[in-house]
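mind reviewing these tokens:
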Amino acid sequence: MPVLTFKVHTADQPDWDGNERKDATMRKITTRITRWIRSGRSVAGAFGVALSPAGKRVAFAGNDQTLKIWDATSLLKEGGSKFEMTITRSDIRWFRRGPWIAGFSTAFGVVVVCMALAGPLLGAEEPLTLKGHTRALMSVAFSPDGKRLASASLDQTVKVWDATSGQETLTLTGHTDDVTSVAFSPDGKRLASASKDQTVKVWDATSGQETLTLTGHTDGVTSVAFSADGKRLGSASWDKTVKMWDATSGQETLTLKGHTDLVWSVAFSADGKRLASASKDQTVKVWDATSGQETLTLTGHTGPVWSVAFSADGKRLASASLDDTVKVWDATSGQEPLTLKGHTNGVLSVAFSADGKRLASAGYDGTVKVWDATSGQETFTLKGHTNRVRSVALSPDGKRLASASYDQTVKVWDVTPRAKEDGQK
């Protein structure tokens, strides 16, 4: 059989190899592809392009999970585009090796070998999509064992899903306005939800029964978090305060005041001794979770801060802001060692992996990015949502990432950090 070999890079970084004639051909082809995409031609969504070594064929890697092969000579002629074949995902066996995905196919009597940078390229890692909410999603959380997901929506409900199959197992109703945040208790037996109706509710995570309603905020509640021992809850509100609650009795134990604008996010350190909050006032504050005393104010963002997260060892804080950046801070000194840039619009959510080695972020640009939490290097970008991504969460084992979007879906992505076995799709 004939053999075609392609090395597919992203469309803005095609497979230049230093050969002047080949490079010129590639530039002409990519210019034409761009024109097609803008005009709505069927090639729309192609995000990878490569020329075969002999320069006779062109391959397009598409968002529709296909590899399309065209005659390169005819493609360069105005009005000409000799199409040869479309190879679908089901026709390709995928292999992962380090930062690359390789595809092998014998469709149409031709051996096709292609290489692509690892990530959501070529549909090799198609996410699980959870559909059921009828309005935008605001929050997503994994259960401690990673078997369930909970999501919160502007449709005033919380839903619980099987994280493997994507099956909806519970719908929790009781809030009378947008549900903005959801969190599992450390033992996975309870769920807490926050709402624009100015309440926090606690639910039995198995039966879906509402067990507590916490009232005290004077405006919408934007975020809720359990302490590591499950005995306390922290909540953030548009009323510019953070409140602490007894998670068993529902009694309010502390009100933390210091922010000068809406508070968007709250997070406990793993030892439960500190609480962090993020605000529209462009700051992150750290509080003593027992006394309520403010211990740090972190300044550096130039826009509202929408999300905050502690690393598992409690040594670092990450914050996401509408200034399009994620910042990583020393949680003791308040020093800012890293600023992560890559999003093209405001960042709405940030989460650490359980081992502290990676960060996930998401925002208005509709993408999810995964970063090396030590170096600040972006490792890959996940694309698939059709609207802003409001929330991200990493599974306890670090192999999956869940994202919740204004497109009314939750997506679950395989972000396994190790190489996969040969032959696994």
Summary: The chain has a mean pLDDT of 82. Residues 185 and 230 are 6 Å apart (CA to CA).
